[in-house]
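Researcher: I've been going back and forth with a colleague about how GST N-terminal domain-containing protein might be arranged in three dimensions. Neither of us has a model we trust, so I'd like an independent prediction. The organism is Smittium megazygosporum, in case that matters for your notes. Sequence below.
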Amino acid sequence: MTGATTYTIEYFPVDALAWLSRALLSLAGVEYKNIFPDWPADKEKTPFGRLPVLTEIDPDGSKFVLAESRAVELYLAKKFGFLPKDSKQEAIAIQYHFQILDVCETFVFHVYHYKNEASRDKYLDRIKIFIQRHEPILAKSKSGYYCGDSLTLPDICLYYLYKTVTSCEDQSLNLFASEQTPAISKLAAMVVENPGIKRAFL
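Model: Here is an independent structure prediction for GST N-terminal domain-containing protein. You can compare it with whatever you and your colleague have in mind.
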């Protein structure tokens, strides 16, 4: 057998739910191709009528197809070493990851969907609690990372949340002031230094 395993990410031509998967592939240094489907015409061609979809083809031609963004993220993170090897530490990393995604979701729902006081209050409540809990966790880390002394999935996810919130048009939603969240801001600065991160953005 010759050649290398190839990867495709099928999603719309935006970052959104596919960004973390693209980032993991970019950080792992593997080649991948973005496929932008003709939607909704291609909907029935996907496993569950939803995007993103990861397709992995091995040199022998065998194909592995996985849908659902969180499933794809966890699979790629584990495959390429962006989760701790210890099972308990892995569970803790996934716990952080899901908490960050929860804040991302409330932000997106408010900014792009509901756009009302209720959705705004829900987001602000969620991010305030998140900062109260996660800033001390990162402040205690000697490396500045969530887990151990290297980049893992929650670090990458936090960077995406940080970038999304700090660059939003309505800055009243941005609670990541560097003087109030120094550990979170430091981690975001550490992550963005990796060249693979920039390659993940469309």
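Researcher: What would you highlight for our discussion?
Model: I'd start with this: The longest strand covers residues 6-10. After that, consider the following. Helices lie at 19-28, 69-79, 87-114, 117-139, 153-166, 182-192, 195-200.
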